[in-house]
Amino acid sequence: MIGNGGEVLYFADMKKLALLLLTVSPAFADTAVVEAVAFSNGRFDVTLSHPDTGWEHYADGWRIELADGTILGTRVLAHPHVNEQPFTRSDQIAVPDGVTEVFVRTSDNVDGWADDTTPFVLP
């Protein structure tokens, strides 16, 4: 037992409390990670890693955005890549003249589009 300001907590109670906290805590999403980005002649090559488990949970896309959130293009990933990690997929995406930096946002079929983006300075 442990004294706590005049109250007594027993280890068994603490274990129950810890279990309760773990079960009601939000699960953190396994978002796809941008491992590398290349750009040449209008083509983006984006390398992702994601803990794909099969059709039930896999990275299903990436997109190129401007700083203001304008979407320039989206690459749909049509199937899981369980045994191919990390993996690279490409797409032709037009970038407006004068743009020097874009942002890559990833998606998976469970959690949707990630909140965070990965900045990429155009060569």
From TrEMBL:
| Domain of life of the native organism | Bacteria
Name listed for the protein in its UniProt record: Uncharacterized protein
The species this protein was found in? Octadecabacter temperatus
